Amino acid sequence: MTIAGLDIGSRTIALVEMDGGGIRHSEVVETTFDPLEQCRVLLEDRGFDLLVATGYGRHLAQANFADRTITEIKAFALGCHEFFPECRTILDIGGQDTKAISLAPGGKVADFQMNDRCAAGTGKFLEVMAAAMGLSLEEMGRIALETEAEVKISSMCTVFAESEVTGLIARGTPRPEIARGLHEAICDRAVSLLKRVGVKREVVFAGGVARNPCLRSLLEHRLGVPLLVPENPQIVGALGAALSANTS
C-alpha cells in the first residue's frame, strides 16, 4: 500500500510518498499564488492508495483530492518522532508561523504553542529583511556569522523592522551587524515560545528556516543543547501526514 502525505504551507508544498519500505519519493515546490494548481502539478502522474493532507491548505486539498487531513501539530510530532525517536521538543519555523511542541515519551503531543498572528520571526520575515539589505537569504545568514557585534532591532513587526533596517543601512551600519541583530531577535522569539512548553532533550529543529546555520548556532548557544535537524527539514510535516494513515 502506497500512502502520500501532502503539507501545503504558506511558502512551500511538500510531498512524501511511503510504501512498506519507507519513503520512496519526496519533493518540495513553491506554493505560489495558486496552491491548488501547484498541488495538481505535484501529484500529476503519481500513484498512491491514500492521500493525507496537512498545513494551512489542508482543507482546500480535502475539498479537491485528499482522502483525509491531519493538523500540523500532529503531523510534525509524527514526522519528527520518525526521524528522531528520542525527540521530546520540536521547534518549527516555517514561512509564516512558528510552532513549539512538547512530546511525551513515545511521540504523543503533550503541549504546544504557536505564533501565527503575524510573520514576525518567520521565513517571510527573513525574506523581507534580506531584500531590504539587497541580499539573498543565504548571504544574510552567512554574513550574520561573520561578526559577534549586533545592532538591536527594536521592532519585530515586519513593516516596521524593514523600515528600521533601511534606516540603519542609510546611517552606514555594517550589514553583518544588522543581519546578526535580526537573527538574534528571531532567536529571542523562538526561545520564548519554546520555554512556554518546556525544553527537554532531544530537541528537533524543523521547517525551512532550520536550514539557516546562523539561527541554528544561536539557538544552540541560547538553549545550551544541540539541535537535531533532519536532512530535509521541509518534508517533516508531509512525512507525518503519511505516517498518520497507520496510526488512526
Walk me through the topology:
Elements: E1 3-8, E2 12-19, E3 22-30, H1 35-43, E4 50-54, H2 58-64, E5 68-69, H3 72-83, E6 89-93, E7 98-103, E8 109-115, H4 123-132, H5 137-144, H6 158-170, H7 175-197, E9 203-206, H8 213-223, E10 227-228, H9 236-244
Parallel strand pairs: 1-4, 4-5, 6-9, 9-10
Antiparallel strand pairs: 1-2, 2-3, 6-7, 7-8
Helix pairs in contact: 3-9, 4-6, 5-7, 7-8
How many domains make up the 3D coordinates?
A: 2
**SSE-based structural type:** alpha/beta
CATH topology of the largest domain: Nucleotidyltransferase, domain 5
Just give the CATH class of the largest domain.
Answer: Alpha Beta
* Mean pLDDT score: 93
Low-confidence stretches: none
CATH architecture of the largest domain: 2-Layer Sandwich
Assign the CATH superfamily of the largest domain: ATPase, nucleotide binding domain
SS field, number of helical segments: 9
**Percent helix range:** 40-55%
Number of strands: 10
Tertiary shape: globular
Order of helices and strands: EEEHEHEHEEEHHHHEHEH
List the strand order in the largest sheet.
3-2-1-4-5
Q: What is the distance, rounded to the nearest whole angstrom, between the alpha carbons of the first and last residues? A: 16 Å
Give Rg in angstroms: 18 Å
Strand content: 15-25%
Q: Sheet with the most strands?
A: 5 strands, mixed
